[in-house]
Amino acid sequence: MKIKAEGQRLDVREKILLEATRLFGDRGFGGVALRDIAAACEIPLSTLSSHFALKRDLQEVVFRRSVEIIIKRDLTSRLGTGTPKQRFRRYLENVVELALSDLPEMKLINREFQELDKPETFDIVVRAFGDRPAMDSLMFVADLAKETKSDILKSIPAVRFIQIVFASIYGIAKLGVVHRHVVGARAVSKAAITRDVILMFERMLRI
């Protein structure tokens, strides 16, 4: 009976994390109360509070979970076999796909990035990405670049290269909407963005 009760508690916790991720991603942290999450989970507020007494604690857990899913699982998936160049290209394709996706975890990360001016949010993001396993996962793209025999990492540190990869792709994906509204340009397809990103980095790495 004790094992069954522990399993049910874990199921409730997972449901809380799923609904909190969805709601925080849709409305932002400030637009969601613990009672909203409890209602979405169809559980009493007291049950939610037994798992997470403070909304700030829940925010950090769901953000770390989202980073875990996006950085550690999805980015390195589907790389398969092939030449180092082919694997590097597939990694870039994964980054573009995630940046343009409507995954609840990606929407949550987007929301947190929009609120980096808030000290509490900034601290949560720094702690999540400063986590050693997360950094190791991010370093994977530098390792892929090294395998292509490019000499780019002789010119800039690996950490700076990682920043360039993610900042440029994220910026291209997110600012595309603004660009269309400002200059009236037509929407650019995911395939075209992916092609341009891959070409840009292949030229940068000279591969």
Describe it.
The chain has 207 residues and is mainly alpha-helical. It folds into 2 domains: 1-53, Homeodomain-like (Arc Repressor Mutant, subunit A); 54-205, Tetracycline Repressor, domain 2. Helices cover 78% and strands 0% of the residues. The protein contains 11 helices and no strands. Helix 1 (2-27) packs across helix 2 (34-41), helix 2 packs across helix 3 and helix 5 packs across helix 11 (190-205). The mean pLDDT is 85.
Pick out its properties.
207 residues, mainly alpha, Arc Repressor Mutant, subunit A, Tetracycline Repressor, domain 2, 2 domains, 11 helices
Describe the structure in brief:
By secondary structure, the chain is mainly α.
